[in-house]
TrEMBL record:
<feature type="domain" description="RNA polymerase sigma-70 region 2">
    <location>
        <begin position="15"/>
        <end position="74"/>
    </location>
</feature>
<feature type="domain" description="RNA polymerase sigma factor 70 region 4 type 2">
    <location>
        <begin position="107"/>
        <end position="154"/>
    </location>
</feature>
<dbReference type="InterPro" id="IPR014304">
    <property type="entry name" value="RNA_pol_sigma-Z"/>
</dbReference>
<dbReference type="InterPro" id="IPR007627">
    <property type="entry name" value="RNA_pol_sigma70_r2"/>
</dbReference>
<dbReference type="GO" id="GO:0003677">
    <property type="term" value="F:DNA binding"/>
</dbReference>
<dbReference type="GO" id="GO:0006352">
    <property type="term" value="P:DNA-templated transcription initiation"/>
</dbReference>
<dbReference type="InterPro" id="IPR013324">
    <property type="entry name" value="RNA_pol_sigma_r3/r4-like"/>
</dbReference>
<keyword id="KW-0805">Transcription regulation</keyword>
<keyword id="KW-0804">Transcription</keyword>
<dbReference type="InterPro" id="IPR014284">
    <property type="entry name" value="RNA_pol_sigma-70_dom"/>
</dbReference>
<dbReference type="InterPro" id="IPR013325">
    <property type="entry name" value="RNA_pol_sigma_r2"/>
</dbReference>
<dbReference type="GO" id="GO:0016987">
    <property type="term" value="F:sigma factor activity"/>
</dbReference>
<dbReference type="InterPro" id="IPR036388">
    <property type="entry name" value="WH-like_DNA-bd_sf"/>
</dbReference>
<keyword id="KW-0731">Sigma factor</keyword>
<dbReference type="Pfam" id="PF08281">
    <property type="entry name" value="Sigma70_r4_2"/>
</dbReference>
<protein>
    <recommendedName>
        <fullName>RNA polymerase sigma factor SigZ</fullName>
    </recommendedName>
</protein>
<dbReference type="Pfam" id="PF04542">
    <property type="entry name" value="Sigma70_r2"/>
</dbReference>
Length: 185
């Protein structure tokens, strides 16, 4: 496996800290849990078979470590002010990518019909741009233009609404709304 522990540290330390702090109110406990998670990652990374599952694997470790913390300390999840039940939330559901995806759905719906259709068919129904051109009865270059313009509009809407922090793989690791008046998120 080509995954190095320093690379994992660089890519995941900030997102993990945010993940933990959303679920553990005590700052010192959150830091202890963070260290415990990285010890587990360091000890077990050699056993990870599918490197493309690294993100899910790391956040599953974090999820389970936080649950163990609550059990060890005889704390009830309901009595915390975390606003979330760890039992019903997986790490994937709480990632910034998932949160931004819900905003993008609203943004796609607000696109002009020609661009909305192009984005829905190519991005969500895995249709190639050639298939799109055939389905709509337009030229291939016309189909490509619609997809590119639709993507550009979505990017402008997203960047107009949110400030994004992106990791080296292009994943959104954190975001902040620029304004409380954003109509998409």
């Amino acid at each position: 496996m080509s995954t190095c522990i320093n690379c994992v540290w660089e890519e995941f330390s900030l997102p993990l800290k945010r993940f933990i702090k959303k679920r553990v109110a005590n700052e010192q406990d959150a830091e202890d849990i963070f260290q415990e998670i990285f010890l587990k990652i360091h000890k077990n990374i050699g056993g990870l078979m599918k490197e493309n599952r690294l993100h899910a694997w790391i956040f599953r470790i974090a999820h389970n470590t936080i649950k163990d913390y609550y059990r060890r300390n005889n704390l009830k999840l309901e009595s915390t002010d975390l606003g979330e039940d760890l039992e019903s939330n997986t790490a994937e559901e709480t990632s910034a990518n998932t949160e931004i995806a819900s905003c993008l759905k609203i943004m796609v719906e607000s696109l002009p019909e020609t661009y909305k259709q192009a984005i829905l068919l190519t991005e969500f129904q895995s249709m190639t741009q050639k298939e799109l051109s055939e389905k709509l009865g337009i030229s291939l270059s016309g189909a490509k233009s619609r997809v590119q313009r639709g993507r550009k509009m979505l990017k402008e809407m997203l960047l107009g609404c949110c400030q994004l922090e992106i990791d080296s793989r292009g994943n959104i690791i954190d975001y902040k709304h620029k304004s409380s008046e954003c109509k998409y998120c």
